[in-house]
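Working notes for the structural subgroup meeting. M.R. asked for a predicted model of this chain before we commit to crystallization trials. I am recording the input and output together here so anyone reviewing the notebook later can reproduce the run.

Input as submitted:
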Amino acid sequence: MQEDKLYHYAVIRLVPRIEREEFFNVGLIFFCKRERYIRFEYHLCPEKFRLMHSEAAYEDVIENLETHKQIALGNLKCGPIAQLDIPERFRWLTATRSSILQTSPTHPGKTADLDATFNRLFEELVK
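Returned structure, recorded in token form:
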């Protein structure tokens, strides 16, 4: 039997108009220190995006999400933040900010299968 591993996750939210405080979930960041595991995935439905009457361009938001994903993965082309160790990258990506991309508070959990748990949470919370 596999031992459960402690993980943390946060939901990535798109806040098209910060002053209205409306948002919808567009991604998930998931982290396990012991396994040196970090995963960031996103899904931005174009129809839902248009319904939110965002002033931002869809392509710009996708580009921003992809940059966040590359930082999570440690892509050195993404600057000094991407060069930090995994726990620091996770904390930076989940820090409170007032931009159109924000994260939920972080939530802990335990699982024997990190990928399966990520996939379940992504389906439940994002898709």
